[in-house]
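Many introductory courses stop at the sequence. We go one step further.
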Amino acid sequence: MTIQPLIPPRNEGPGMREFDFDVAIIGAGTAGMSAYREASRHTDRIALIDGGPLGTTCARVGCMPSKLLIAAAEAAHAGQRSGLFGIHHGPATIDGKAIMHRVRSERDRFVGFVKETVHGFERAELIRENARFENDFTLRLDSGRAITSRTTIIATGSSPVIPSNLRGAGDRLIVNDDVFEWTDLPNSVAVVGTGVIGLELGQALHRLGVRVRLFGRGRRAGPLTDPAVAAYAAQSFASEIPITWGANISASREDDEVVLRWSEGKTGNRLERFDYVISAAGRSPNLRWLGLENTSIAPFDTPVPPYDPLSGRTSASNIFIAGDANAYLPLLHEAADEGRLAGENAARYPHDFRRLRRTPLAIVFSDPQIALVGASYADLASDPARAFAVGEVSFEDQGRARVMGVNRGLLRVYGERGTGRLLGAEMIAPAAEHLAHLLSLAIEADLTIEEILQTPFYHPVIEEGVRTALRDLAAALETGTSPALHCLECADVE
């Protein structure tokens, strides 16, 4: 993308209008807060504009409340697994009201911390209204007030997508935001979408005794792109939770229930009733109401305007975009990084800085957990100039995993031919959140497979599975072949 700097109105001279602010930030979520912190190092003329509820998506309806629900599900499920070790308990009693009380109270505590932080921003004018562009330098607020700014950062986040075929469910059609307002657990839910949100919520509710059916497009579970890992994940979740793949669903409301109808292969037409249907069909950037058509941002037919991910600049050089609003990597740590980048460039405009991004890292807190690190399989396979090999390990026979009774999973690692550098990994595995961080550190340090294998691996730990996969990858890099889709080495020690 070619970005040509605009010539902003001058701030001095007789009859020349001064800007009200150096930087205007639309959105006080993770990206907006991060942008403020960085911009405030260079100027105290900052407008932080947000007409919605404060507290960030993560704290209010995302990372934190979902993990609270998952923690309760893990506690319930742990008792069900104890028979494997010869330990038998009576039937677990699940108190839905107590579970949701803890979810809401802890959620409110996290949100409270964020609100305190925003209200403590001493160098910003906090404007609790929505804003719309009138031109590159002017924003019109809900109250009718117009403000001008030398630069503007769009950090408006995203909202859940609700497919039209589900709208027949009426007020029993909800999104993940609504789940965390429940005061008790329902008897049954349908979850439409098997991405991150659908998998996490669907499995957690299932383990808490709610009757759940998942509906997914294709056979894709989570963000996985490696065909072998994706197939393993689809089979793993389908063995625990009823999942319908690729069905055309219609929803209707009958009394206090949602009726879903669909066709399913040879079984013909199906019908099932639920208390609620949760739309987990993805999220869409909050951009439509911003009036971008009134700016010099070039017309675009993509969900977000063209921008430079290494600087945050759009084609209107004084307008930046960060966080979920750009739909690039909708994760909290990425939003924080992008906010810092946009905040620096907006405050120091017209000077422009392009910063390298950190190694990509994405985790799904399902069981087994899912993680992607560095370059994905799809990224590498779609680049004909990138020669790579694959190594893998199955956790079904991995020593520590079997000891703990969590021996489900598949890890695949990717290495560059010629250099032997570790490029990326995809996995469904026990403790994937920790394995992913280990691998991300190695990729960030630009280590080769052999260099990683020279580092210590204790015995017996789950991480030894990483060593097995790396040994397999080293062999593939030497021979020029990729492994078969099974465990080539199950021993944990020499």
